[in-house]
What does this fold into?
Amino acid sequence: MDPPEQESAVKTLADLDGFHLVAVGSPVPRRRQERARACCLRRLVLELVAFDVEMLVLESRTATLDVRDVETVKGARFDLPRGTSFRVAHERGRDEPLLWAADIVAGAIRAKRDGRPGYRRLIEDLVYEVAVETNC
It folds into this structure.
């Protein structure tokens, strides 16, 4: 998207009823991306459960990487209260438009880190951002 389209997308998201929880691990060397993703995913699960969320839908990448995500979520369950119900599923981005919201939020957060805070300001009251230590 060009900048006017990006701004329009963020404004549209800001007008919708919703709350976005984001786990950010940064900076991360390119060769440590999957490790950092696992750290962020684990933290995201813990945060979501604190908000009484029982299911997380992630954008599907490849079969192997999707399995890795599921294993990460299974590992996070050991840190959850006993009896907690939490599931994870994968959907293709083109099949699940709600995943676009996550992309828009991630883009706004990235833009702020790159010195362009305008998009993030538009959704300031809708986003809870958690810093994750990835040890990468």
Summary: Strands lie at 20-24, 55-59, 87-91, 127-131. The mean pLDDT is 95.
